[in-house]
Specification:
A 5-stranded antiparallel sheet has the order 1-2-3-4-5, with no helix packed on it. The chain contains 1 helix and 5 strands. With about 100 residues, the chain is α+β, with helices and mostly antiparallel strands. It has a domain of about 55 residues.
Length: about 100
Amino acid sequence: MNWKTVAWCAALAVLMIAFGTFGHWPRTEAQQAAGQAAGGPKYTVVDTEGSNLVVVDNSTNTLYFYTEDAGKDVGDDLQLRGTIDLNEVGKPVIKPKKAGK
């Protein structure tokens, strides 16, 4: 073997060792707010028909349910009827919380 071949083999070996070593280092990433993807929306509208509204607060994992009073026209004020803690999803029973008057 000549000295050029030995030099290329040594350089290749050093590169392989470097990639192997640095490839296993833990990556540092910025911490995201709990329950919210970076740059994601704060609220997600799940359903609406003009007389009701179901919204999820992505930062607190809470579902809010709004509806009109009975006998009112579409476009009147929506009243908060209750909330659900979405952190309880997967449990056998989820108990909604009624909104206080």
